[in-house]
User: What shape does this take?
Amino acid sequence: MPSSIADLRKSYERHELSEDASHSDPLQQFDQWLQEAIRSEIPEPNAMTVATVGSNLRPSTRVVLIKGYDARGIVWYSNYDSRKGRELAGNPFAALQFHWVELERVVRIEGRVEPVSAEESDEYFHSRPLDSRIGAWASPQSQVISGRSVLVANAAKYAAQFLLKPPRPPHWGGYRLVPDRWEFWQGRPSRLHDRLCYRPDDQGGWDRVRLAP
Assistant: This one.
């Protein structure tokens, strides 16, 4: 008989997160943790979950890859006609989550989402592998299709049409989440985890508070 899923346990004992050892700027803290995740060679350290809410107030999530971050926010790219694109068009707020299991760490980021400039989208699109650029044209993301043959046929069609120089589709580009809340979670023994939350202060900086796990 397989073990009960309710009996699965893990003790978190690798690291700690204290106010004294963390950055006062959440972007610096995020950069430190992301770089540590990359150096640790864990699988896809750049993968993040994006949560949006539709007009029916139902939340939805999907995993995408972060493609940039700076003081302006967190950037990823997608199809504007996808479910997340439609939901963001109606409600331009989202939440992101990074889960680095091997490091026993989670980062949660919330804020308003805006499209990146056409120039940024063009620059990133043309840096992608050719197959990925063709794929952006071939996939009517989130729409019902009759089978995989639709994608294969579309890919062949656009590959023949554009050859080696597909332009960026008008329905494809970048999003930038402008954070107004950050949370850094570090697993600790006995489920007494460390949680530091950053919220905007009145001086244009950040207040850092500890949350109970």
